[in-house]
């Protein structure tokens, strides 16, 4: 259920907070008790949803949320949102003491984890400006987009085992690289450590082998949306990727934000995506608007600096393919999927230079260095902290994603 | 431990059986009792290893094998092999009744599953004759091998969720394809359903994120070897694979044989692989011989036929890269891995036409149809049953893999 913008909470919500009562994101945390629990967040206050069960504040049929968010049906998740709204809306303040204050915790008293466990990870390439920029850089004598790009959401299987939650440091990977003029490759730390500004969705439920998910039902299978930084080693990628695609250049670490934002919370922010021309085949054609207006930004705190500076701003509406189209495509051959599977969008660059979602594009293959707080960068240096943020702006409130942040450790 | 060739079993072993007492493969089955259990096999007899625990026939420290083969350390797995050898060797026949005949079952009374659960699946491209053939077909104006091929084991992340055990039917996938002269792609059942003759290894134990597995320790992380058929849809692959590699053309089904063959059982069959020239970088250089002489064959039973015919014969010794090199490479960037992760070799074609490990090569892109039992084939038809087999030939015995078999169902 979508919570009306007029509702407010008796829990303090700082101005411009990502987490008004309209959001109620889904997270997972270790509590001060040592137990782990599903959690949500209002302002800077954590609600230990598992403890609400212990205090009898949730209907008994929702108790199974303690096993994980995807243990609830979609109808039960909507019921849970409504229950949480009623507990914490301003009108309930007179009963605040009854609503067991001990289920509320300051943000800094919990350790956040990935919001669900992740059996599989697929990464798409649906940012059309990014794909076009990469084409211009690496195939300058050909059209920037390959012939298949507008017919299907190009993607590949990533590595679920290295998906980590925001705040986890990322070690600079070693890998094999070869400069164009070198006779032989060498092995060592990547010299072209990069980020990729992406969003992703987690599955709420999967499909059986051989039974594709129809596009009109795809959103029913989606739990919600997170920010994704698909860390990349460009020099490794260039040498390894033919003919089977990116492998070790992408598998050393992928950062997700700790809060899954429900599609219910994003409902007011649906927008049409880019015109799809030529028309897509029937199995990829949706009857409803499937893009979202989510503002994205990336900031970089260079090694040794006290502050971060804005690197770029973009928006999920620039994605060529919608989440539903991605999921319908990926299961169209009968691949089985599971609750918790993660699907990332691909780098979401906008049309302008200030909206490019990777160092590769921002510095145009390293040929146009940028200056951040007096430091020059082509790619990322050890000690740099890279942070993605995102939010949908409503009338007087925002549905935010928090952040997906990581610091580069030396190899 | 490697069991001497002189040892025989009091359990009958048919001549040329894949499963003499020297093999003792690792499998997983549902028993007639309805319980699932680790199992091994001698001749056509199943040994319910879990039940041996219940009968006090295994040392107590090995009881945890009931949770899975990878619950035992490598030393404990060796101890288990020795215990099984002592229970079932011919010298123990006088005690056969004490060795609880009820732990033995005819093969047809159990349902075999994948031998371990599989968190992740990586597919390499280490069959150099296959890679070379594909190059000749699809890039006829360039050298058949890409520049990186002899420097690193090219590979990509596959889809673990669609790995199934031998005997599981495989539904012909639908997908998007475009013929060169068509203006637009179409969506429908693949017209180029293919198999790939591969072997694979399962991990016994993984590594932590950021801590690569050194090549000299790689085999310590390997549980053993299976046969792998990486079913492929060639027309889908051709249209989708640029620039991020194979995706839906490979993710609809992968068949593994039900028995993991321990490296201990294959110890007598080590051979040098092809000369690696140019020399590989130090992190891929092993001091021990890491290839194995395993004979492979593929047979096809065409739809409607009563019998299968041999399609091709090959050998794992044709792989350019060893298992150790594959694992050392894949973790060299710090990717974390887990017990049960599956690594497939890539298609193992030999140098001659009769040794090509895919229909793509056997019929040279469909341009040279072959005749099997009076039926013409370019790619696989609905109702066709494709079976991989493999064995290492010892002096008077063979260490066999059983089979990886699957029948193509209509889309």
Topology:
Two copies of one chain form a homodimer.
Chain A (H helix, E strand, L loop, with lengths): L26 E4 L5 E7 L2 E4 H6 L19 H15 L15 E3 L4 E2 L8 E4 L3 H11 L16 E3 L5 E3 L4 E2 L2 E4 L8 E4 L3 E2 L2 E7 L18 E8 L2 E2 H7 L13 E3 L4 E2 H4 L3 E2 L19 E2 L2 E7 L7 E7 L7 H8 L11 E3 L14 H4 L7 E3 L2 E3 L7 E9 L4 E12 L2
Parallel strand pairs in A: 6-22, 8-16, 9-26
Antiparallel strand pairs in A: 1-2, 1-5, 2-3, 3-4, 6-7, 10-11, 12-15, 13-14, 13-22, 14-16, 14-17, 18-19, 20-21, 20-25, 23-24, 25-26
Short structural description:
Chain A is an alpha+beta fold and 411 residues long.
Tertiary shape of chain A: globular
**Uncertain parts of chain A:** none
How many H/I helical runs of chain A? 7
Structural class of chain A comes to alpha+beta
Largest sheet of chain A: 8 strands, mixed
> Percent range for helical residues of chain A?
10-25%
Integer-rounded radius of gyration of chain A:
21 Å
Mean pLDDT of chain A: 97
Strand content of chain A: 25-35%
Task: Please report the total strand number of chain A as a whole number.
Answer: 26
Oligomer: homodimer
Main interface by residue count: A-B, 60 and 61 residues
- What's the end-to-end separation of chain A, in Å? 46 Å
What does this protein look like?
The structure is a homodimer of 411-residue chains. With 411 residues, the first copy, chain A, is of the alpha+beta class. Helices cover 13% and strands 27% of the residues of chain A. Chain A is built from seven helices and 26 strands. In chain A, strands 6, 7, 8, 13, 14, 16, 17 and 22 form an eight-stranded mixed beta sheet that branches. Chain A has a five-stranded antiparallel beta sheet with strand order 4-3-2-1-5. In chain A, strands 9-26-25-20-21 form a five-stranded mixed beta sheet, with no helix packed on it. The first copy, chain A, is globular, with a radius of gyration of 21 Å. Chain A starts with 26 loop residues before the first strand and ends with a strand. The model of chain A has no long low-confidence stretch (mean pLDDT 97). Chains A and B meet through strand 7, strand 10 and helix 4 of A and strand 7, strand 10 and helix 4 of B.
